[in-house]
Structures are given as C-alpha cells and as structure tokens.
Design a protein that fits this description.
With 152 residues, the chain is mainly β. 0% of the residues lie in helices and 47% in strands. It has one domain: PCu(A)C copper chaperone (Immunoglobulin-like), CATH 2.60.40. It starts with 31 loop residues before the first strand and ends in a 7-residue tail after the last strand.
Length: 152
C-alpha cells in the first residue's frame, strides 16, 4: 500500500463506481493520505488513468485541486457517468472536496485522474512520479505503480 498525499477509463466493475477493491472504511487520524494508488498501462501518445483512495483524517476539510505527472502532456480529474439510455462517457470534473473524516475513491467507473498524451509507454511493473496539489496540505509527491488490476 502506498501512503502519501495522493488508461483508459473503462471500469472492470461498473457496479462499484465509488469504491476500490480492498477499501478500508477508516481514515488515518491526523493525516491526509493517499493509498492503493495505481495507473493503467497505456501507449506512447495515448491515454492512461490513475486511481487511488484519498482519506482526510485531519481536523480541516481539504480539496484535491490538481494532479500533475511528467509522463503526460495533460492531466485532468474526470468522472465517469452513465446516461439514461445506458451509454457511458466521461467528463472533466475539476477539484474534488475531501471532507474531514471521509475517504474519497478515485476508482474505475467513477472519479479518476486521466493521463493524456503520454510521453512514453506505460507498461505493467513500470512506475511514474505524480504530484497531487491540495488546497490546505499543499503539493504531495509519490511514485505510482503501473498495473493491470487494482491492488488487493
């Protein structure tokens, strides 16, 4: 499990857009954490997606304002949705509030981070450097593994 402060959008489990496999229900007291982060493989020039769980155990609400990664020319926070007719899509979401005492899932089929126009291919077992910008906690950096499936 990777702790710190925090392709394709296809869902492996469309019934769980807000959760991640193995998701813990509790936040870490006194800490803003990012756990179980991973990215999907993607080809150079193409796209990938990044997923994680963000937990806020601090006494102040925070907001995930942006995410950046050198491996992608563009990085955007997105959400997946389903229309009344059953068609699916995704759209940019913008900043994500992280209330005190809550955990936010960035997961397949729900909120996630899109890595667009990859500068290099991302293969399973590779890793990438990612910066998460929070309104209160500031910029937090972490290394994220590339995987075919979410961590268990």
């Amino acid at each position: 499990m990777i702790a710190g402060v925090l392709a394709g959008c296809a869902s492996d489990d469309a019934s769980a857009p807000d959760g991640a496999p193995g998701e813990a229900s509790a936040v870490t007291p006194g800490a803003l954490t990012v756990e179980a982060a991973w990215a999907r493989p993607g080809g150079a020039g193409g796209m990938s997606a990044l997923y994680a769980r963000v937990g806020n155990g601090t006494t102040s609400p925070d907001t995930l304002q942006a995410v950046s990664a050198e491996v992608a020319r563009t990085v955007e926070i997105h959400e997946s949705y389903e229309n009344d007719d059953g068609t699916r899509g995704m759209r940019p979401l913008g900043p994500i509030p992280v209330p005190t005492g809550e955990q936010i899932a960035l997961a397949p089929g729900g909120k996630h981070v899109m890595l667009i126009r990859l500068r290099r291919a991302l293969q399973p077992n590779d890793s990438l450097a990612v910066d998460f910008q929070f309104a209160q906690a500031g910029t937090r950096s972490m290394t994220v593994p590339v995987r075919l499936q979410p961590p268990q």
